[in-house]
Amino acid sequence: MQKLLRMTHQREIILDEMKKCKTHPTADELYERIKKKLPRISLATVYRNLEIMSESGLINKLEISGRQKRFDWELQQHDHIYCVQCHRVDNIDLVEKKNIPLPEQENHGYIVSGCRVEFYGICPKCQSLLLRTKKRKGKKMACKSKCGSKGLSDKQRTVLEAMAKCEQACGSKDIAAATGLEPKQVSCQITALKKKGFVESPIRCKYSITGDGKSAIV
After folding, report:
1. Which residue(s) pair with 209 in the sheet?
2. I want to staple 209 with a disulfide (CB 3.0 to 4.6 A). Which of 59, 88, 144, 163 is the partner?
3. What domains does the chain contain, in order, with CATH numbers?
4. Rounded to two decimals, what is the model's pTM?
5. What distance in Å separates the CA atoms of residue 53 and residue 73, rounded to the nearest whole number?
6. What is the mean pLDDT of residues 77-100?
């Protein structure tokens, strides 16, 4: 039952902002909205008034799965579903819930007056965000497959092919002479190929192609 409670200006503003919310706001969320109308109000004052109004029966206080307390101005009996990603809470109306039986051996001597049902999952907005994230990861993986360890630029392939023809380790100048590339270009490509594991340096300033390097140009 609702207890008699004096409706101060602050409480009227808090209740009005709650009714404007499409979700079930926390005290912090309400405070951000209310301070635009009442700049001098503190978070503690908002929280205290929410607690007073919930105790009086003007609003409902929700404590869903140990998360931060949320408040609901809808007093009609209903249950909730919440998102495990963003913690959004929505109302649900279970007509058949009234018929949920509790076996006598499970009631521990209680006289049962009602029950609450709580569903959880991922809301549509978070599903969309997760889908976009998966697509972005898919594109990055596709790029890695194309441009990563197995991908070769034309210059890298040219350098590897020249090294594959060498019976012994060769220097960048030898490769440059065989390919027609500038020595600096060859050095740059060798550095990239070493990172991919396609080239090794058995002797100082000499390079040779690895087994993976030979496979990459097949």
Report:
1. 199
2. 163
3. 9-126 (1.10.10.10), 154-216 (1.10.10.10)
4. 0.46
5. 10
6. 75
